[in-house]
Write a structure and sequence with these properties.
The chain is an alpha/beta fold and about 425 residues long. The protein has helices at about 50-70, 105-115, 165-175, 185-195, 195-200, 235-245, 250-260, 285-310, 335-340, 360-375, 375-380, 405-410, 420-425; strands spanning about 5-10, 15-25, 30-40, 40-45, 45, 75-80, 85-95, 115-120, 125-135, 140, 150-160, 180-185, 205-210, 215-220, 225-230, 270-275, 280-285, 320-325, 345, 390, 400. The chain is about 35% helix and about 30% strand. The strands form six sheets. A six-stranded mixed beta sheet has the order 19-18-13-14-15-21, sandwiched between helices. A five-stranded mixed beta sheet has the order 3-2-1-6-12, with helices on both faces. Strands 7-11-9-10 form a four-stranded antiparallel beta sheet. The two termini are about 15 Å apart.
Length: about 425
C-alpha cells in the first residue's frame, strides 16, 4: 500500500494495460486516477516482449500520475491465464501463546504451513485463500482470533502459477520503476467485488470477454468453484470481419466498434461502413451484415461456455450471469447472452467516474478486493520459508479448474462466504 493511503491496481491485458488508483473512504471505494495504454508485448496473459510491456506500463502510469498529481510507487497486479491453477490446501499449526489464545501470528503460521505441498518445478505459489478454520475439535470457524485452543487448522485454496510467466511480469513491473506488492487472482477479485454476497451464495456466472480469451467463472455458496478459459475473444470477432470485408485489420476494428452489434435484428438498414478493401476498391458493408458476422461468433462462444457450466454440477445459478471485459461493450451482447444462457444476464461496469467501461472491471475489482479485505496487510505478513515446495513431475490441467462435488458438499454447512471471512479475519 502507498504510504499516503491509496492503492494502485494493474491489469496487464493483451490489447490494453489498465491502471486504476483508489482509496477507501467511509467504506466506499473512491477512484482517484486511471491510466490506459495499448499493449503490444502480451499474449493471453503472458509477457512475450518485456521491453514493449515496460513501455506500455510506463505510459499507463504516466497517464494516471498526471490525474493523481503524485508519484505511483507500487502496484498490485491482476493475474490470470491458462497457467493459473487452483487446488485445495490444508494447514496445521500449534498455538504458541502460553495462555493458548489464538493471535494474528498463529493465523499467519497456519496459512504458511499450507504452502508445504508438492508442486512441479516450474510452478510457484501465488496466494493462499482461507475458507474455514478448525480450533481443536471445533470446525467451521470463520475467525479464530481470540479463541482458546492448542491446535489450529485451516482449509482453503492455493493459487499457483508458472514461474516463468510470473517472473516476466515481475521483471516488467520492476523495470517500469514500480514495486510489486502482490499478485491477485483476477477473476476471484472481480467476482467478489462485482457480485453481491447473496448472488455468490446462490450461484452466479462471471463472463470476462477479453481480447484473445474469455474467462467464465462460477461462484456458488460463497466460493469460486469453477473457472474455465475459452481461447476466443474480441480479436476473433475482428478477424472474422477482416475475412468478410476483405479489409485491413484496423478497418475491421473500426467496423466492429462503431457499427457492430451483437444482434443482427437490432441493425439499422440505413447504416453501414464505407472503407477501402485490400484490393484498393471502395466498398460499403451494411450494419446488418457486420452484425450477422459478430452474432455468429458470439453465439458460438456463449454456447461453448454454457456446455462447460452445465457440467460443473451446480444445480442452478440463481444469480444469473455477469458480463464484463472490453469486448463485452458491444451493444446487444447482454440480450444475446440472456437468450443463449437461458438466465438473466447483466453487463457489469464500474460505477466510478473515469472507469465506467467494462474493460476496467478487473482492475477496479482488484483495487476493491485489496482495500475491502485489507489483503495488503495479510499477505505482507506471510513468512517465506526457504523450503516450501516438493518436486512433482506431473502437471495438472491449467485451463479447467473445478472443485469436486464431494469436497464441496462436505464444506457447504460451514461456509459463510469468502468475503465475510476476509472482512472478519482481517478486521475490515
Amino acid at each position: 500500500m502507498e504510504a499516503n493511503g491509496y492503492v494502485a491496481a494493474l491489469d496487464i491485458g493483451t490489447s490494453e494495460i489498465k491502471l486504476v488508483v483508489g482509496e477507501l473512504l467511509g467504506g466506499t471505494l473512491n477512484i482517484l486516477a486511471e491510466g490506459c495504454a495499448p499493449s503490444a508485448g502480451v499474449k493471453r496473459g503472458a509477457v512475450v516482449d518485456i521491453d514493449k510491456t515496460v513501455q506500455a506500463i510506463k505510459q499507463a502510469v504516466e497517464h494516471a500520475e498526471t490525474s493523481l498529481g503524485d508519484q505511483i510507487r507500487s502496484v498490485y497486479v491482476a493475474i490470470e491465464g491458462e497457467h493459473i491453477q487452483i487446488a485445495p490446501c490444508h494447514g496445521i499449526a500449534s498455538v504458541k501463546r502460553e495462555d493458548q489464545e489464538i493471535t494474528d501470528a498463529d493465523v499467519m503460521e497456519v496459512i504458511n504451513s499450507a504452502q508445504v505441498m508438492r508442486l512441479p518445478d516450474e510452478m510457484s505459489v501465488i496466494d493462499v485463500i482461507p475458507s474455514s478454520f478448525t480450533v481443536d475439535q471445533q470446525t467451521g470457524v470463520v475467525d479464530p482470533r481470540g479463541m482458546l485452543g492448542y491446535r489450529l487448522e485451516m482449509h482453503g485454496k492455493m493459487v499457483t502459477g508458472s514461474k516463468t510467466i510470473l517472473h516476466s511480469i515481475r521483471r516488467s513491473i520492476e523495470r517500469a520503476g514500480l514495486q510489486l506488492e502482490g499478485f491477485i487472482l483476477g477473476n476471484l477479485a472481480l467476482g467478489m467485488s462485482a457480485a453481491s454476497v447473496d448472488e455468490i451464495d446462490l450461484g452466479i456466472g462471471l463472463v470476462d470477454v477479453g481480447h484473445e480469451k474469455t474467462t467464465v467463472s462460477v461462484f456458488y455458496r460463497g466460493d469460486l468453484v469453477y473457472s474455465y478459459i475459452l481461447p476466443v475473444g474480441g480479436d476473433h470477432m475482428t478477424r472474422d470481419l477482416v475475412y468478410k470485408l476483405n479489409c485491413k485489420y484496423q478497418d475491421a476494428k473500426v467496423a466492429k466498434e462503431e457499427y457492430g452489434l451483437a444482434l443482427e435484428e437490432m441493425a439499422d438498414e440505413t447504416e453501414g461502413f464505407s472503407y477501402t478493401n485490400i484490393n484498393g476498391e471502395v466498398a460499403f458493408e451494411p450494419q446488418s451484415e457486420i452484425s450477422y458476422v459478430l452474432e455468429a461468433r458470439i453465439e458460438e462462444m456463449f454456447t461453448l461456455m454454457l456446455k462447460k457450466v452445465q457440467k460443473v454440477g451446480v444445480p442452478m445459478l440463481n444469480g444469473g450471469y455477469l458480463l464484463c471485459g472490453g469486448a463485452a461493450a458491444l451493444p446487444g451482447i447482454q440480450e444475446l447472452a440472456t437468450r443463449i444462457m437461458g438466465q438473466k444476464t447483466r453487463l457489469y461496469q464500474p460505477s466510478s467516474i473515469g472507469v465506467r467501461h467494462p474493460k476496467y472491471a478487473t482492475a477496479v475489482g482488484v483495487l476493491k478486493y485489496v482495500l475491502m479485505s485489507d489483503h495488503h496487510v495479510s499477505k505482507s505478513q506471510l513468512e517465506k520459508p526457504e523450503v516450501r515446495q516438493e518436486t512433482l513431475h506431473t502437471k495438472p490441467e491449467a485451463t479447467d479448474i473445478h472443485v469436486g462435488e464431494n469436497e464441496y458438499e462436505s464444506e457447504k454447512k460451514t461456509k459463510k462466504g469468502f468475503r465475510r471471512l476476509m472482512e472478519k479475519l482481517f478486521g475490515v
